[in-house]
Amino acid sequence: MANPHIDSLKQRRTQYALGKSLPLSQEAVTALVQDAVKHSPSSFNSQSSRAVILYGAQSLAFWDLVKDALRKVVPAENFAQTEQKIDSFAAGAGTILFYEDQDVVKSLQEKFALYADNFPVWSEQASGMAQLSVWTALANAGIGASLQHYNPLPDAAAAAKWDLPASWKLRAQMPFGSNEAPFGEKSFMDDAERFRVFS
Ligand SMILES: Cc1cc2nc3c(=O)[nH]c(=O)nc-3n(C[C@H](O)[C@H](O)[C@H](O)COP(=O)(O)O)c2cc1C
Fold first, then answer.
1. Residue 1: its pLDDT value, please?
2. What is the C-alpha to C-alpha distance for residues 172 and 165, in angstroms, rounded to an integer?
3. CA-CA 20 to 30 A from 170: which of 98, 141, 148, 151?
4. How many Å lie between the centroid of ligand 1 and the Cα of residue 141?
5. How far apart are CA 90 and CA 56, in angstroms?
C-alpha cells in the first residue's frame, strides 16, 4: 500500500558526495530542520534535543575543528586519508549538530526518581528520532546528508566557538548539501528473520 511517509523513509539514504547548492533557501532549510526536531517525540515531552545549524563558512569552521582534534590522535601517515574524508563532509552546504541538553535529563531524574536510569537512554532515543526526522525531511526536499560521530573530539572547541551551554552534549553531526552522486546499493535482511507477526 502506498504511503507518503514510507516513501520519504525510502528516499532517505546516506550521501557522502555532497555539493554546495541547495534546492531551497537557507531560511527554508532552517525551518525544515527546526520543524523536524520540534515535532519529534521525546520522553515526557521533555524536548531535550537541541540543534545547531551551520552554513557555509560556519560549517567549514566546524570541520576544521574536527580536523584539528583528529590531527592529535590519528597517526601522521594516515592523516591524509582522514583529511580527505573530513573534506568530503566540508564540501556540503552545511552541517547540523545534534545535541541533548543534560540539564533536562538531570531535572527529569530528580523529578521522577523511579525512572532515573531510563532518562539518559530515552534522551539518546529522542536524539535518534530527531536525527531521523531531519534526515528524512532533508531527503524529501532533495537534499543529501550523512550521519557522523566525531564527538567527543570537537565538543569543547565547538562549544567555545558558538558559545553553547555547557549542558549541551554533542551526539551526532549531519553534513548536508546537494546530491553529487547516485546512492550506493543497499541490501536488506530477510523479513522472516526480522519480524514475527501473531494474529
Ligand atoms: C545510529 C547510527 C549511527 C551511524 N553512524 C554513522 C557514522 O558514524 N558514520 C557514517 O558514515 N554513517 C553512519 N551511519 C549511517 C549508516 O551507516 C547508514 O544509515 C546505513 O549503512 C544504511 O545506509 P543508508 O543510510 O543509505 O540507508 C549511522 C547510522 C545510524 C542509524
1. 86
2. 17
3. 141
4. 20
5. 9
pLDDT in tens, 11-24: 999 999 999 999 99
* Distance (Å) from CA 25 to ligand 1 centroid: 26
Ligand 1 probe mutation, 14, 18, 85, 100, most atoms within 8 A of CB: 14
- Cα 192 to chain center, whole Å? 30
- The backbone torsions φ and ψ at residue 19, rounded to the nearest 5 degrees and listed phi first, read -125, 180
Cell numbers representing residue 118 in the block: 531510563
Q: What domains sit in the chain, N to C, each tagged with a CATH number?
A: 16-181 (3.40.109.10)
Closest residue to atom 18 of ligand 1, CA basis: 14
- The cell numbers describing 19, all together, are 555539493
**What gap in Å lies between CA 33 and CA 35, rounded to an integer?**
6
Residue 13 in contact with ligand 1 by CB distance below 6 A: yes
148 lines ligand 1 (CB under 6 A): yes
pLDDT digits (tens, 9 = 90+) for 103-141: 999 999 999 999 999 999 999 999 999 999 999 999 999
